[in-house]
Write a structure and sequence with these properties.
It contains 15 helices and 11 strands. The strands form 3 sheets. It has a 7-stranded parallel sheet. The chain has a two-stranded antiparallel ribbon with strand order 2-5. Helix 6 crosses helix 8 (about 165-190). The protein has a single domain (about 5-350), classed as TIM Barrel (Alpha-Beta Barrel). About 45% of the residues lie in helices and about 15% in strands. Strand 3 and strand 4 form a beta hairpin. The chain is an alpha/beta fold. The N and C termini lie close together (about 10 Å).
Length: about 350
């Protein structure tokens, strides 16, 4: 077997529902997993691992921060972050919420400085994609309620949807303006090169939506649609990331213009793969679907290989499927299972 398409050609063919050589393969994992996989395979680095496992070359592009000096441990919004070690891996967690104590929009307007897109240097983007004409380039992203919750605190953020809707509307508008202008400049710096962008919000739990479709429509869809339209105008496809049981929300996301659903947590309630394909497979593609809560965490090699084959068969029935893990692969996963996953996907994915 020999690839007849470049990664970019393959992804675009799948996204356009055109003939392709094999199922595209994507990868995401924690730094600890990356290091373990490199060691397991005796590779020089992660790039060699990806090449040997036939994982498509994907690269994200974005600007470089050049704005006012940031306080240690704080980001451009003043949100405090700290690395927390959980034994098997360390993660950046929010430890300070700069808007936690405010009560009104007027207070925010008087006291809070929103970041300026001019605080970023976009000049390196064009150079970054030179020599990577065959790669899949991603650029532009949106997940602004996650930022809002970091500004306010998670519990306050959700309660604000009921108790302070004016504050949510105001801040979400400001956050989306900022994200929109950054994405716009990315697309200007690399015209026609960006294949896809994230438009994300985590709306699902394991069992149901975390909020009603009506609330999503009021607080989120208008902002998400702005980003979707911008990406489409730039020739990019929109991957909508939302963990959990989100089937009930898919019709309005499709109406808003998403092209692909990520990560397809098919073990969650009402997220059966066959039903998703039957009801939505003519309208959107699917990205991910390799379960890292159970299969990659606790399964054996045959479990992993069988799931690969099932995903390709079911989610790829109408085209539009890109195989990868449901989230960052965690350190609990045996590197041998990761190798088995991509080996099976390469073998089983040919058209």
């Amino acid at each position: 077997m020999q690839d007849t398409m470049t990664p970019r050609e393959r992804w675009l063919a799948v996204l356009n529902r055109e003939p392709f050589d094999r199922t595209p393969l994507d990868y995401r994992a924690t730094p600890e997993v990356n290091a373990a996989l490199v060691e397991h395979m005796g590779a020089a680095n992660l790039d060699e691992v990806k090449q040997r496992l036939h994982i498509d070359s994907v690269m994200g592009v974005g600007p470089r921060y050049v704005g006012p000096k940031l306080e240690a441990g704080r980001d451009v919004f003043g949100i405090g972050h700290e690395m927390v070690d959980y034994g098997t891996g360390a993660y950046s967690e929010t430890v300070y919420n700069p808007l936690a104590e405010v009560e009104t929009v007027a207070e925010i307007e008087a006291e809070f400085e929103w970041p300026d897109p001019d605080w970023y240097d976009f000049s390196g983007i064009a150079e970054a994609v030179v020599g990577r004409e065959e790669w899949v380039i991603s650029g532009g992203s949106y997940e602004e309620f996650a930022t809002y919750k970091d500004l306010r605190g998670v519990e306050r953020g959700y309660m604000d949807l009921y108790e302070k809707p004016d504050m949510v509307h105001y801040c979400m508008g400001k956050l989306t303006d900022h994200r929109y202008q950054i994405a716009e400049r990315i697309y200007e710096e690399a015209p026609g090169r960006v294949v896809w962008c994230w438009v994300a919000e985590d709306f699902g739990t394991q069992e149901a939506l975390i909020m009603s479709p009506a609330m999503i429509a009021e607080f989120f869809i208008p902002h998400m649609k702005r980003m979707i339209d911008l990406a489409h105008d730039a020739g990019a496809y929109v991957f909508h990331h939302s963990d959990g049981a989100v089937r009930e929300n898919l019709p309005q996301m499709i109406e808003a213009g998403i092209d692909v659903l990520d990560p397809v947590q098919w073990r969650c309630k009402d997220m059966e793969r066959e039903g998703l394909v039957a009801d939505f497979g003519d309208q959107i593609g699917f990205h991910g679907a390799m379960d890292n809560q159970f299969t990659l965490a606790y399964g054996n090699e045959e479990d992993v290989r069988a799931e690969v084959r099932d995903n390709i068969r079911i989610l790829g029935e109408k085209g539009g499927y890109i195989l990868g893990p449901c989230h960052n692969i965690q350190p609990i996963t045996d590197p041998a299972l990761i190798v088995a996953m991509y080996e099976e996907a390469y073998e089983a994915g040919w058209q």
